[in-house]
Amino acid sequence: xxxxxxxxxxxxxxxxxxxxxxxxxxxxxxxxxxxxxxxxxxxxxxxxxxxxxxxxxxxxxxxxxxxxxxxxxxxxxxxxxxxxxxxxxxxxxxxxxxxxxxxxxxxxxxxxxxxxxxxxxxxxxxxxxxxxxxxxxxxxxxxxxxxxxxxxxxxxxxxxxxxxxxxxxxxxxxxxxxxxxxxxxxxxxxxxxxxxxxxxxxxxxxxxxxxxxxxxxxxxxxxxxxxxxxxxxxxxxxxxxxxxxxxxxxxxxxxxxxxxxxxxxxxxxxxxxxxxxxxxxxxxxxxxxxxxxxxxxxxxxxxxxxxxxxxxxxxxxxxxxxxxxxxxxxxxxxxxxxxxxxxxxxxxxxxxxxxxxxxxxxxxxxxxxxxxxxxxxxxxxxxxxxxxxxxxxxxxxx
Length: 398
What we know:
transmembrane helix; Glycerophosphoryl diester phosphodiesterase membrane domain-containing protein; transmembrane; GlyceroP-diester-Pdiesterase_M; membrane
């Protein structure tokens, strides 16, 4: 029996309670599962779980949600998603940060190489004012090539990293951990499908730009001339229309990588699955993804800024020497890697938890998770069979 000042001695170890009920409110056992899902059919609930829902009225309080791992097993709020992402990193730091470091380094190298060429051109202009940086080899690529390549590489590695980290996340929901090697072993069979998803999304996102480029080429080939004002207005209109296009499709396909890894779907089927899951919650998903990008972008920039400034100073003031240019490139790569190590896992974790949230909201998937959590606690450990719970056959809506 509990004296009202703590959990019952019979509560299984490791189970968390979200908040204790207020003084004088009816007490519910903090480790029992909630009753029927608000949208579930009568009698649809976790097997063997005592039903503790009380009749509405004065003192009515639903029992707290189970939380065996990084999130409570119920539809998630913004705070739950951000907190769960932080807990994902803290509970599996070697696997999450190690994989993120590899991905971040791949995306940072093109920027570092581009900066070396740009700093070399800048140093040449400072020592010889008669020179023109645009005439130097790689002048244009130094300014735009590195960031563009990094943007493409970042898109690829974030999608891939989301798939791998989703496998870690799938087990962390139940309080289990996973090494980077195990995560890769369980995910490598899905890598071709992940690459296919990346390719399809990239083709969809680039299609408008290809059309605009072909239209511009046709105008030039026909001998038509545009005034600078007309060309600038055309460019401005293209950007204004392209941004919402990108946001729409990136949001619609945000859950394609988790569907590939956790549900073993093919590329097209995973993209259809993501489109379906986002339906009914598009603006919420878009808002959370945008907020996450702004948040981690700000933090990543703060971490990256000292290394970028130091690398720029070494490259410009070093007189263009090969040693200073290499040092500047290394510092830029280190700064980019540190910044992306925070950005990539956070974006991947938020996408994975949003995927889980959408399944709980649209498919009553929290009931599946609650039932599994009770069984996991009876066994006293989290085993690999928990990974199979994410298969769509376990969803009420499938």
